[in-house]
From TrEMBL:
InterPro entries: NifH/chlL_CS (IPR030655), NifH/frxC (IPR000392), P-loop_NTPase (IPR027417). One of its GO terms (biological process) is chlorophyll biosynthetic process. The lineage of its organism: Eukaryota, Viridiplantae, Streptophyta, Embryophyta, Tracheophyta. Keywords: 4Fe-4S, ATP-binding, Chlorophyll biosynthesis, Chloroplast, Iron, Iron-sulfur, Metal-binding, Nucleotide-binding, Oxidoreductase, Plastid. The keyword Hydrolase does not apply. The keyword 4Fe-4S applies. GO terms for molecular function: 4 iron, 4 sulfur cluster binding; ATP binding; metal ion binding; oxidoreductase activity. It comes from the Eukaryota. Belongs to the NifH/BchL/ChlL family. Its cofactor is [4Fe-4S] cluster. Pfam families: Fer4_NifH. This is Protochlorophyllide reductase ATP-binding subunit. It comes from Gastoniella chaerophylla.
Length: 174
């Protein structure tokens, strides 16, 4: 919804899904798009053979979509997958083609690898609900932003309450 709202305001938006379920972009494209890792494997990791249409798919409202995916359980690192996603996108100059790039990452995984997109971000917005578990994850992400902000200009832009009419725990956390 955030990607579509920004696109409707005239922004050129890229949403990058960073989830082992590969489901971040499904509702935008209407199908499960291949992950960048899958595409790189098919091309024997020859980045020069990857074209934008191999990894960037047009979604609803003109939002462009990429799926990083994630490593199989117990067999890899989320940070590696994010890094391998960023490399071909940099090669394609994709980061210069968009006004806004959203990394949709898991908030409930303690792996530091899922904080890797913060290395490429200016701002972090945390989408949360009013539950303890979601706010615990939000707190971990906020701590990651604080740590990363020591090495580059990253700021926490705020929290957005999602799928909740209650805000008491969110307000208390803030």
């Amino acid at each position: 919804n955030i990607s579509i709202a920004l696109a409707r305001r005239g922004k050129k938006v890229l949403q990058i899904g960073c989830d082992p379920k590969h489901d971040s972009t499904f509702t935008l494209t209407g199908f499960s798009i291949p992950t960048i890792i899958d595409t790189l494997q098919m091309k024997d990791y020859h980045y020069e053979d990857v074209w934008p249409e191999d990894v960037i798919y047009k979604g609803y409202g003109g939002v462009d979509c990429v799926e990083a995916g994630g490593p199989p359980a117990g067999a890899g690192c989320g940070g590696y997958v994010v890094g391998e996603t960023v490399k071909p996108l940099k090669e394609l100059n994709a980061f210069y083609e968009y006004d806004i790039i959203l990394f949709d990452v898991l908030g409930d995984v303690v792996c530091g690898g899922f904080a890797a997109p913060l290395n490429y971000a200016d701002y972090c917005i945390i989408i949360t609900d009013n539950g303890f578990d979601a706010l615990f994850a939000a707190n971990r992400i906020a701590a990651s932003v604080r740590e990363k902000s020591h090495t580059h200009p990253l700021r926490l832009a705020g929290l957005v309450g999602n799928r909740t009419s209650e805000r008491d725990l969110i307000d208390k956390y803030v």
